[in-house]
Amino acid sequence: MQNRFQIGEPFETEIVAITDSTIFIDLSAKSEGIVDRAELADEEGNVSLKEGDKIKVYFTGEVGGEMRFTTKLAGQKADSSMLENAYKNSIPVEGHVEKEIKGGYEVKIGNARAFCPYSQMGFKNREEASAYVGRNMTFVITEFKNDGRDVILSNRKIGESEYAANLGKLAGQITEGAIVEGKVLSLEKFGAFVDVFGFKTLLPISEMSYDRVSDASDILEVGQEIKVQVLKTDWKNERVSVSLKALQKDPWEEALSKFPVGTKVDGKISKIMDFGIFVNLSTGIDGLVHISELEGVSSNTNLKKVYKTGQEMSVVVDKIDPAQKRISLRPASSVEQDKTAQKYMSSQKDDDGETYNPFAALLKK
C-alpha cells in the first residue's frame, strides 16, 4: 500500500461514505482512503458533496495504517517539505491573510509566511483590497525558493480553475436544443440577460416572440422566471443565446391555409426597404410588396418618404412559400372599400333582382 502513492501525488476518485468527521474515498483493491470532513464543509458544517461524487485529492501520507488524503494543505500539514510538494504538484494550500504589505499581502500558511500579489488575489468578483485581510483563503504556490523562505502565492488561479471546472459542468447541462428554466437578470434595448444555472445567457429581442417586439419590457420584467430553449452555445467565448419564441407555435405552420393565393388582407406596414415594403398580415407573418408593384413610384424613389411604418395597407397574396417563410403581395383596394362597393351595387338592384340600368328603365316606360 505504501508504494502505491507518492507524497503530494494527485488522485481522482469517488466518495464511498461520509460520516460526521470523515470522508471515505475509494482506492480500489478493496481499500479506502480518508479525507477530513472539515476540509469540504461550509461555515455551517454542511457538505454539498455526496456518496458517488468524484473528488480530486492529494496523498499526504500514512498514519496508523490509514491512507490520508487532502483537498488542500493547511495548518500542521503545511511544513516546508509539504509546501515544496504542494508547489511541485500544484496542490492547493490554505492560508490566513495577515495584512497588506507593499505590492500585495502577507499570508501565513502553517508556520510559513508567503506573499500574494494584489493582481493574484480574487478572480471574477474582486473586492476592495482591504476586504481580504483576516480571511482564510485557498491558494496555489507559484514560486518556492530558498527552502521555503521565499514563497509566492496565487488565489486567482484557484478561482480560474474552479470557474473552468464549473464551466465544463454547465456545458453538459446547457446544450443546444435543451429546454431550461431561467430568471430574467436585466432588460436591454437588444433583448434580456437570463440566468440559467448561474450562467448569464442572452435572450435576443428577436427571439422573444413571433410578433414584432420593440421593447423587451412589453414582454418581460426583471426577476421573472421563464422557460427558454437554448439556441446556440459558444463555450470558448462563454456565450449562450436562448429563445422564448422557439417554444411558441410557429404561425407559418398555418400560413398556407390562412392566406391562400388571392386572399385579400388589410395589414400594416412593418418595414420599409429600398426594394419594397413589408406588410404585417398577422402575428409573426409579414409579406413583401416589391417596389415594382407600387403605383406612382420608380426604382429610384425613396419609399420612406412615401410610406410610413404602421400605415395601413390593403394587399392581395400573389405567392406563398411557407417553407421559406415568404409571401409575395401586391396592392389592392381595402376589404372595407370592397364591402362598401358591394353594398352599393346590391342597393341598385330593381324589383326583378337585376342591377339598375337607367337606359333599360327608360325603355320600360
**Strands, count:** 20
Question: Which segments are poorly predicted (pLDDT under 50) over 5 or more consecutive residues?
Answer: none
Following the backbone from N to C, one meets helices and strands in this order, namely: EEEEEHEEEEEHEEEEEHEEEEEHH
Radius of gyration: 36 Å
Terminal CA distance reads 127 Å
Largest beta sheet, briefly? 5 strands, mixed, barrel
Oligomer: single chain
Category from helices, strands and their pairing: mainly beta
Biggest sheet, strands in spatial order? Answer: 1-2-3-5-4
Estimate the helix proportion, in percent. Answer: 10-25%
What share of the residues does DSSP label as strand, in percent? 35-45%
Name the average pLDDT: 86
Your description of this structure?
With 365 residues, the chain is mostly beta strands. Helix content is 14%, strand content 40%. It is built from five helices and 20 strands. The protein has helices spanning 80-89, 156-173, 255-258, 335-347, 358-364, and strands spanning 10-18, 22-26, 32-36, 54-63, 66-70, 93-101, 104-109, 112-117, 136-145, 150-154, 179-188, 191-196, 199-204, 225-234, 239-243, 264-273, 276-282, 285-290, 312-321, 326-331. It has a five-stranded mixed barrel with strand order 1-2-3-5-4. Strands 8-7-6-9-10 form a five-stranded antiparallel sheet. A five-stranded antiparallel sheet has the order 13-12-11-14-15, with no helix packed on it. The radius of gyration is 36 Å and the shape is elongated.
